[in-house]
TrEMBL record:
GO terms for molecular function: oxidoreductase activity. The keyword RNA-binding does not apply. Coiled coil: none annotated. It comes from Lactobacillus amylolyticus DSM 11664. This is Nitroreductase family protein. Its cofactor is FMN.
Amino acid sequence: MTDAILTRQSVRKFRPDKLTEPEVTQLIAAFNAAPCGMHQTDVMQASVIKDDAYLNKIEDACDHACYDAPLLFVIATKADSQFGERDASVAAENIMVEANSIGLGSVYVMGAAFSIDKDVALKKKLGIDEGYKIQVIVSVGYPKEKPEAEDRSNRYKVTIK
Ligand SMILES: Cc1cc2nc3c(=O)[nH]c(=O)nc-3n(C[C@H](O)[C@H](O)[C@H](O)COP(=O)(O)O)c2cc1C
């Protein structure tokens, strides 16, 4: 299996190595290519965290729930938008699939997103605008090990009529 969607699996153990600038640029392009409800492009914003000082602040605030990844995409949406959670999720998937296509691992982290969202001072330091809620953090990095394979061919109920 080589398809980047089909081979993507959540990765929670990362090597400490930093991503290259072209890799970071490619992931930002994938974020920017995400669909958005009613083409409301101002609903969503992201902070791409690669600096160790900020990474440590986030990991300390969420008890390492971002798995000490070397890169974090903190995705926030307008708190009052009906599209927010959906926009953030499709953008997160874009990043995760793109990451897999270039040999990087990733995981969608909701728990830490909620913890960091409550930390108003840290949120501001991360560059998230007032009125925006952190919906998801995508942890990205070089996988330390290959996750255990899982047969996902029948994970969900699918009805064909
Ligand atoms: C809405 C949502 C919330 C999630 N939150 C977390 C989380 O907080 N921490 C975590 O380690 N994984 C989280 N995940 C990843 C799931 O655990 C993972 O996608 C699921 O176990 C299926 O595994 P797979 O991604 O390898 O197919 C989340 C995924 C989704 C879609």
